[in-house]
Amino acid sequence: MRTFNLSDYLLQYLDKASATPRNRQLYRLMRQAILDRVLPADTRLPSSRDLASELSISRNTVLYAYEQLLAEGYVEARAGSGTYVADTVPDSVHLPVATTQRSPAVAETVQLSQRGHRLVAQAGASTQQWGAFVAGVPDVTQFPHKIWNALQSKVWRKPPIAALTYGHGGGYQPLREVVAEYLKVSRSVDCEAGQVVITNGIHQSIDLCLRLLSDPGDVAWVEDPCYWGARNLLSASGVTIRPIRVDAEGICPDEADLAAVPRFIFVTPSHQYPLGMVMSLARRRSLLEYARRHGCWIIEDDYDSEFRYSGRPLASLQGMDSGERVLYMGTFSKTMFPGLRLGYLVLPQALSKPFVTGMEELHRSGQAPLQATMAEFMGQGHFNSHIRRMRLLYGARLEILQQAIDEHFDGSAVHAVGSDAGLHLALRLPAHCDDKSQWK
Amino acid sequence: MRTFNLSDYLLQYLDKASATPRNRQLYRLMRQAILDRVLPADTRLPSSRDLASELSISRNTVLYAYEQLLAEGYVEARAGSGTYVADTVPDSVHLPVATTQRSPAVAETVQLSQRGHRLVAQAGASTQQWGAFVAGVPDVTQFPHKIWNALQSKVWRKPPIAALTYGHGGGYQPLREVVAEYLKVSRSVDCEAGQVVITNGIHQSIDLCLRLLSDPGDVAWVEDPCYWGARNLLSASGVTIRPIRVDAEGICPDEADLAAVPRFIFVTPSHQYPLGMVMSLARRRSLLEYARRHGCWIIEDDYDSEFRYSGRPLASLQGMDSGERVLYMGTFSKTMFPGLRLGYLVLPQALSKPFVTGMEELHRSGQAPLQATMAEFMGQGHFNSHIRRMRLLYGARLEILQQAIDEHFDGSAVHAVGSDAGLHLALRLPAHCDDKSQWK
Predict the structure, then answer these.
(1) B42: left (phi over 0), alpha (psi -120 to 50) or beta
(2) Which class would CATH give B6-85?
(3) Res A110: pLDDT
(4) Which of A169, A238, A363 sits opposite B200 (nearest CB)?
(5) Is residue B143 a contact partner of residue B336, using CB atoms and an 8 Å limit?
(6) Is B345 within 8 Å of B205 (Cβ atoms)?
(7) d(CA A162, CA B338)
(8) Quick one: which of B23, B38, B92, B81 has its CA closest to A280?
(9) CATH code at A138-382
(10) How large is the average pLDDT for residues A40-50?
(11) Cα–Cα distance, B203 to B209 (Å, whole number)
């Protein structure tokens, strides 16, 4: 005798037009009925032959569903008497059993943690990552993807075992070496390959620094205005942000700022983000000496200094730092393309080992074929020639943009700043001009 | 008149055999001398012609160095009277200037933060990621890299712009779709593409959950024994770990455990790590009901359930969860290869949007060409056939290993557990046997 009209229930919900195979559908429907206690424990199921005939489907379909339910413990076979819904509440452990009705508070609200809420509430990443007036995005249509494809294919032709398993040690060694060499020559960064950790980009580099060097409540100076990403990562890590005014020479702490020693100083010395000025040498020396005396960490975000259109690029702050208080970071997002997701972090000697370990624990490493391709791309000179080519192109475009600004705006009221370098420039608007209402 | 014998100093350190060009060397030596105050402010530099002749090098070499120093503000040209070392301490800001001697405490000890120290001190990732008896690593020599290379080359032949710029939204959409479909069919996961977030693997997935849903001091149940990575990520996030005994049916909380409601329950229901048992249906239901009643989050780590050698794979815990308390995670590290660094996180509907945002803020997204290749690999059926092939291969190897264990050990004293599934098995040793002293 059956206590529940199983075949009616199944006929009602089996969808013959569905892409899901009939046997999977059957299994799921019966499982749901058991979970919902529509089919209570100890219910005897019809024989597979009977059920198949009632549903006008093949017996194998039913057998599949029964076997799956059996294997998962939803039903049990009793010798000589058929298949029964299992009693799935264990005797050994008396876990409290909830009523079937859920608390509306649980079901209807999203319960992020406090730090999770901060991370999401202050999110700055735009959903638009391509097109006119999107700052910080290179012209990826110019990327020599044929060269890249050829190098990558070559790497993949005979990938060594080590390239396919987990990595360890801060990135693919030949890439660390070629990055160290590049940074020495072009950015006067003072480093060896062992100090370079390959990351997914600036955000991951900042996050890694905060995971290893910060505790909640620590204070960080940021430039005012500063990069939204740095601000949000700091805040999500529980670090207290102190915005510091910038002037034409860069970050410019006053007496009160200096009196409250921070643990971190976030700066963009080569090309202030977003205003574009270069930090003066005097300011650099003062900052280094302050950090050295007080044991602060300076985080140098050197995100787009490769594109300098007038004057020579200034050497990195890191290269001036005999005291080893500077953590230097850069990205291939601007020089190559953002979707690559590769960047680098250069650490003081004493921090290299713990950072490599931290990276491994937080994210594991790998991606050796990608990093090998990047190492080849740099080693064969394609990286430098791409940068040279793009510098000319962006320089020419900048000139056109500047001319248009000069032509269409009143130069005494509206002028561009930060046009010496980088992938964007900033317009200073007159005081009466609302910078938000013009835009959607 | 010159106050310092510059040319002697330079002759001493200029290295004619070095790969670094002479002009760069000259620039760096002079910069260092200025930074070290060996060349103090207001020192007049020799003319480029004089210095070149004293060093027996070309005048252009000297000019390059001077111009670089000039551009960076280390020296300044005074009209009509030559080039002088600049006074680099600014008047406008009186930053405290440290003595040149550094505090030994700063220079010689590594100052990690408390959470950074925890992360590094408890590190579990082995430097050996390949070879016999390395658990959790697939046989990457069997990966069909020719097929992969061909698919990847095709993706790169004409990459769309969106593939090269920053991504947004939880991963490359076609990959999210094919992963959702795969998980529905093969793991009975109840999800749509919008609930799938592509990550770099299990570690990043766990970390993302903790960044969004935990605050320091929250409590998490973990299985005892459990996966080292989960334990360390929890601890590094400031979450308090409560180890819960496992028995033959999986996690087995006692009355005291149940009384102290945790925020998280970390489990490996399909194949307990490392012991290998499957969580019973009864235990699953109890756990879900407990989580639902108390608003706990269950993190289901389904890391290698694809490789089941006997019986059918059990459906995922997530698929039983109408209460939406389960966050499901899996990885391509075992089914493809670890160096790929791709995994997936399946979220309750209400959490999808904040998690996508959180991922974007913490790591930015991209890697569309890689994810597109993966989507093609799955869409064309290569993924499923690779799993089938590897399941047979691993099954055969497991049999050989079991036979060897049976042959060489006394079965009453030493026996293997967890041999139904996965990439490893565990040996239970007799009580008198030291499990560490035998190994280096």
Answers:
(1) left
(2) mainly alpha
(3) 65
(4) A363
(5) yes
(6) yes
(7) 10
(8) B92
(9) 3.40.640.10
(10) 86
(11) 10
Q: What is the mean pLDDT of residues B171-191?
A: 94
- pLDDT score of B109 more than 80: no
A235/A216 Cα distance (integer angstroms): 9
**What DSSP string describes A325-344?**
-EEEEEESTTTT-GGG--EE
> Residue A119: which of B97, B212, B280 has the nearest Cβ?
B212
Residue type at A245 in one-letter notation: R
B106, B143, B357 member nearest A120 (Cβ): B357
Give the pLDDT of residue A107. 34
Which sign, positive or negative, has the C-alpha torsion B122, B127, B133, B139? positive
**CA Rg, chain B, in Å?**
31
Please tell me which residue of chain B has the smallest CA distance to A67: B312
Residue B180, token pair as written in the block: 């959702």
Residues 6+ away with beta carbon under 8 Å from B244: B221, B222, B223, B224, B251, B252, B253, B257
List chain B residues with CB under 8 Å of A31. 315, 320
Cis peptide before B274 (omega within 30 of 0): yes
Residues of A within 8 A of B203 (CB-CB) are: 361-364
All CATH 3.40.640.10 domain ranges in chain B, comma separated: 116-384
pLDDT digits (tens, 9 = 90+) for B279-319: 999 999 999 999 999 999 999 999 988 998 886 667 899 99
> Which residues 157-216 of chain B have a CB within 8 Å of chain A?
157, 159, 161-169, 185, 188, 200-201, 203-204, 207, 211-216
Using a CB–CB cutoff of 8 Å, tell me whether A107 touches chain B.
yes
Which of helix, strand or coil describes residue A415?
A: strand
Alpha helix (H) ranges present in B193-348?
202-213, 228-236, 255-259, 281-294
Q: Chain A: nearest CA to B266, how far in angstroms?
A: 17
394-423 of A, contacting B, C-beta below 8 A: none
Chain A: nearest CA to B147, how far in angstroms? 10
Read off the pLDDT band of B232 (50, 70, 90). very high
Confidence of residue A93 (pLDDT cuts 50, 70, 90): very low
pLDDT in tens, A331-373: 999 999 999 999 999 999 999 999 999 999 999 989 999 999 9
Helix (H) or strand (E) holding A244: strand A240-247
Residue A300 in this model has a pLDDT that exceeds 60: yes
Strands (E) located in A101-193: none
Contact B198, B371 (CB under 8 A): yes
Of B164, B200, B287, the CB nearest to A337: B164
Residues of A in contact with B175 (CB under 8 A): none
Q: Does B296 touch chain A (CB under 8 A)?
A: no
All residues of chain A having their beta carbon less than 8 Å from the beta carbon of residue B314 are: 71-72
User: Is B96 within 8 Å of A141 when comparing Cβ atoms?
Assistant: no
- The minimal CB distance from B113 to the residues A148, A214, A233 is found for A214
Give per-residue pLDDT as tens, B147-168: 999 999 999 999 988 899 998 7
Residue B328: pLDDT over 70: yes
Write the burial class of residue B322 (CB in 10 Å: 0-12 exposed, 13-18 middle, 19+ buried).
Answer: middle
What is the spatial distance between Cα A266 and Cα A203, in angstroms, rounded to a whole number? 13
CATH 3.40.640.10 fits B116-384, yes or no: yes
Distance, CA of A66 to CA of A81 (rounded, Å): 15
What is the DSSP secondary-structure string of B35-92?
HTTSS-TTPBPPPHHHHHHHHTS-HHHHHHHHHHHHHTTSEEEETTTEEEE---S-SS
Residue extent(s) of CATH 1.10.10.10 domains in chain B:
6-85
Contact yes or no for A211 and B145 at CB 8 A: no
Q: Is the pLDDT of residue A313 over 80?
A: no
